[in-house]
Amino acid sequence: MTLEQLRIFIAVAEREHVTRAAEALCLTQSAVSHAIMTLEQEFGLRFFDRIGRGIALTPTGRVFLSEARAVLSRAEAARSRMTELTMLKGGTLHLWASQTIASYWLPARLNQFHTRNPDIILSLTISNTEEICQNLASGTLSLGLIEGAATEAGLSLTEIARDQLVLVVAPDHPWSREPPLPRDLTQARWILRERGSGTRASFENALSDWGVDPAQLTIVMELTSNEAIANAISTGQAATVLSASVVAGLIENGLLHHVEMAFPDRRFALVRNDRSLSPAEQAFTQFLRFSL
Predict the structure, then answer these.
(1) Helix (H/G/I), strand (E/B), else coil: 193
(2) Going by C-beta distance under 8 Å and a sequence separation of 6 or more, which residues neighbour residue 159?
(3) Best label site of 78, 114, 150, 280, fewest CB within 10 Å?
(4) DSSP state letters, 26-60
(5) Please, are residues 180 and 259 in contact by the beta-carbon 8 Å criterion?
(6) At what angle do helices 106-116 and 279-291 cross, to 10 degrees?
(7) pTM across the whole model
(8) Distance CA 87, CA 269 (A)
């Protein structure tokens, strides 16, 4: 049973005439008769009584007409809904983004995307780079926004922005008066993001490039919140490395001191697997591409 057969059956049933139905559908009379015969043979039922040169619905045919109309109506509703999604007149865009991107870089762009596509419902899950990459590798997600490099193989990255890490301490920390050399970094206490975060990975990569073993750091706290780390640093004697966008306001207000140390730029990236994108996801990736 196909939708085309149902469409033919409904046309014949409504007119109780094969020729008129064929004319209305722009089909040959034989094609219409064959469709009706195929349906009756499939179910082993008669939907029409042949009365002289005419036809009339049987009681079974009247039941089937009601069901056929319902099926065709649902099919048309599905077609209409899919057309709406293609035209971005509905649907949901659920993004996963690492914390710095989600808190500082992404909100303004979500507002811009919403202005252009007001019928798409937006939602956001904040995670870290490692977890986002794991979900992409397992196929749970189609795309994500991460800091630094992908932590899983087989993912494609497109750079969407550059970011700068900065070393910060409290204003009364000794490093606020005399910046350290890379070899001195192991002499401090540190409050850092959790393992798996892009910020932590970028910091440790920089240390390794300078010949400093990250395992030699004295880490007194690992926190999953950039803001919690910044506040802890401003009220204690530990050091940390965070995105400049996180600490700029605190530095400007004198609550944190920026220690001069040149960390390499890192990238913010759109990361994808091989899964097909929904119309809303396609629209968002195109929006990012043209807004760069």
Answers:
(1) strand
(2) 267, 268, 269
(3) 78
(4) T--HHHHHHHHHHHHHHHT---EEEETTEEEE-HH
(5) yes
(6) 120
(7) 0.73
(8) 27
Q: What is the DSSP letter of 216?
A: G
136, amino acid identity: L
**What is the rounded distance in angstroms from the CA atom of residue 257 to the CA atom of residue 166?**
10
Q: Dihedral, CA atoms, 199, 201, 206, 211, nearest 10 degrees?
A: 150
**The one-letter amino acid at 57:** L
The radius of gyration of the chain from alpha carbons, rounded to an integer in Å, stands at: 32
Ranges of residues in the chain with a pLDDT under 70 are: 84, 87, 292
Q: What was the pLDDT predicted at 234? A: 96
Strand partners, 49: 56
What the block records as the tokens of 33 is 């008769």
What type of residue sits at position 152? Answer: E
Structure tokens that stand for 268 in this block: 């913010």
**DSSP state letter for 262:** -
- In the three-class reduction of DSSP (H, G, I as helix; E, B as strand; rest coil), residue 179 is classed as coil
